[in-house]
Sequence to fold (191 residues):
Amino acid sequence: MGLRQLFDEMAARLAEEWQCCVVVPEPYPGEEHLDLEGRFAAASSLTDERVLGDMAAAADRTGAETATAIGFCMGGMYVNKAVSTGRFNRLVSFYGMIHVPEGWRGPGQGEPLEHLSNGDPSSLLAIVGTADPYTPAEGVAELRESGVQVVEYSEAEHGFVHDPARPAHRPVDAADAWQRASRWLWQFSGL
Fold:
C-alpha cells in the first residue's frame, strides 16, 4: 500500500545482505499523504501501465541487465503482473492477490492471472498462507496450473512474513520464506 519506514529499512537491509542495488517504487506518487484508508480507496485508480512501467523503469535506472522483483500484498499482486513485462529474470510474490480485490478494480487494472499468461510464469515464486483470504485455495490452484512455483504455509494469514509488528507475523515461517526467496532469486537469476 505504498512506501513507509518498514520498506525503507527492508530495502537497506536487503541491499546490504545481498550486496545489490534495491529500488522501491512508490505506487502512489504525489499522494504519499494518503492514509491507509485513502490508499485503499485510491487503489482502483492505479493502472497497470503506470505501475508496471515504474517497476521496469526503476530496474532500467539501475543499469543492471539482470533484475528481480519482490512484492508484498498489493506489491505482490503487481509482481505477479510484472511477469508479463519480461524485464525481471526472477520474481517473488509474498501473498500477492491472485485476483484484483473487488474494491480495487478499475479500468486500468488487469487480472494477475491474465498477465501471467503473457509472460513466463515459471519465473515466479508465490509465497502464500493457507489462512489468507486474498490467496484462497482455488486461486492458489490457478497459480500452480499456470506454471508458478507456489510455497504454502499452513494456517499462515495475510502478512505473515514482512512485518514483525503485525499480529499475523510468524517468525519461523518468515525466516523460511526469506531463505526460499533468496535461493529463488540468487540461484536462478544469474546474479
Summary: The mean pLDDT is 92.
